[in-house]
Amino acid sequence: MSFISYLIKGISLGSVYAIIALGYTMVYGIAKMLNFAHGDVIMVGGYILFTVMTSLGQSPILAVLASIVFCTLLGITIERIAYKPLRKASSLAVLITAIGVSYLLQNLALIIYGTETKFVTSVIPIPTIKLAGGNLAIPGQTLVTIPVCIVIMVSLTVFIRKSKTGRGMIAVSEDKGAAVLMGVNINKTIAITFAIGSALAAVASVLMFSSYPSLTPTSGAMPGIKAFVAAVFGGIGSIPGAMIGGILLGIIEILGRAYISSQLADAIVFLILILVLLIKPAGILGRKMNEKV
Amino acid sequence: MKKSLAKVLSLILALALTFALFTACGKKDEDAKEKGSKGTQSQDSGDKADKDGSGKSAGKFLIGGVGPLTGPAAVYGTHVEKGASIAVKEINAAGGINGYQIEFNFEDDEHDPEKAVNAYNTLKDWGMQISLGAVTSNPCKAVAAETAKDNMFMLTPSGSATDCIAYDNGFQVCFSDPNQGTASADYINEKNLAKKVAVIYDSSIVYSSGIYQKFAERAKDCNFEIVAAEAFTSDSNTDFSVQLQKAKDSGAELVFLPIYYNEATLILTQADALGYDPIFFGCDGLDGILAVENFDTSLAEDVLLLTPFAADAEDEATKKFVSDFKTAYGEIPNQFAADAYDAMYILKAAIEKAGVTPDMSISDICEALKVAMTQISVDGLTSAGMTWKATGEVNKSPLAVAIKNGAYVSVQ
């Protein structure tokens, strides 16, 4: 019975990683850059939730909406100010800028909210469900996290495959120059990518802080890194890959902690990442592409 | 493309070279400083100490402290600073120590050992003569090594790892980690709190793993059994469902949490979601849990912690301190504030005993205070009749505190 409970926990944790990883993978796939500030957008989302719900005393629904809107605008702003001027610069310069933005967000949060840990009220008020005579307890958040994750993945895939904007994204990711010639507005496409990625980060923050309510300016850093690993694990640039990578990562982490060693859980996660990359360098679902220079 | 890459690379190279130049200079400077401070250890009390010491202080004791004013452990640092400041104000108002006023300066280390050393150096430039070490264990370890190098007297209010007092110039106000582990095991044993005990500890910090080791050692001779010992690290400190599930499955009636309050809030929340309600028992790291903004304190109901200070205690000294603290800062002091308050009075007692004056060199002050510390007995907020061994460890009795209706209440 405890195995099933661990498995559910793993899928739930993995779903959060997956939603964050989707943001990483979309931005990488389309703009060809690693947005290391992605994890910190989650942290910002958490602070917006906290401010709207606790400081202003508004309803959770309003808080979630405010968080999504704010993060979306933040994503677009970051892209416009920090990344767009560097579109023609080397990828190294953009990477460094992304790290800079990450620290900027963390320190802004530090200045505005101070350092003391904030506790985010759960926006998912579903009580724990107990099965099998109380032996199997499934927290309410888990029941929401997993379906939300599936809905997001399906709608994102449909959006990219079917809509005009979505196909524009694929075009930009495959060949920027040719996409321009075909009439795709690159700047607009990349801005939309960042908007979607940041909105996903806000959703992830809602789910994450409902399960793990402690909030500090560095709360987004570790989930961000783990989600990045998940994206690479599944094949960076691939949407189902990010999903599978995230969920697998969550399951491995929880089961490793439960059955091997609670101390070595992280080491095991990264060991498996190394093994996967040795066997399949492009990740589980990644396509091997020859970089054109 | 290639051209711009070359440009970037050459820029980086140029920057790297410039930095190398600066660091080389910095090193030389430090070497010189080290030589200077070595000089202070010898009889003639080196010229640097004189310059910094008597030049700036002009008949005042300059005492400096380092601790997290920002960052995840900020509650500890801010309370130490506030607690110490209250004591300084009182002592100065009452005429100072041996007629000399105290000047107190506190620097932020963000709970980071490297930043703690930087902060220590900043204080040294300011002219610090006596150090309060650092507030948290890891940074304190780093600062202790620096004070030993400079032979500056150090009394840490709350750095509880044994490494914090590894050098003979270092002393503690709080219990050392091993003592907390042993005392916790003894307490559970004496009060018959449980037969089966689970431990969840942070294996990535000395504070937590140090307490756990001593706890496990002592538990062998006790009437309870450790049925689960689960670790986590600072990289995976949000999800505790597995550790709690294992504790629950092993039938533990008491979960020992030798950790900081930050993780403890998550553990209590997740235990609640899991429907697991054992006795939670912690050490001084849990002190501060009630100050976490928006944390549902009903989750912490009945949590026990071993700490030397309870703000609700009925004695005059505690009452006065708590009310002064409330008037000055609008909050209730925790154990760290009390430790820091005591630290100042301990320094006062030691300075008076040794007859130290501010015009002495840092090294001479240190030598005199080292001896005086083992001879004094101080009645403070955190315990009556505190005495010290030459190793720097304090001898005092612990106090158990329970959380009732969102406040700390002492238990007999």
Primary descriptors:
heterodimer, A: 293 residues, two-stranded antiparallel ribbon, 72% helix, globular, B: 412 residues, alpha/beta, Rossmann fold, 2 domains, 7-stranded mixed beta sheet
What would a concise description of this structure say?
The complex is a heterodimer of chains A (293) and B (412). Helices cover 72% and strands 3% of the residues of chain A. Chain A is mostly helical and 293 residues long.
Radius of gyration of chain B: 23 Å
Give the rounded overall mean pLDDT of chain B.
Answer: 83
Biggest interface, residues from each chain: A-B, 46 and 41 residues
Series of secondary-structure elements of chain A, N-terminal to C-terminal: HHHHEEEHHHHEHHH
The outline of chain B comes out as globular
The class by helix and strand makeup of chain A works out as mainly alpha
The largest sheet of chain B has its strands arranged as 7-6-8-9-10-13-14
Give me the number of helical elements of chain A: 11
Q: Sum up the overall morphology of chain A in one term.
A: globular
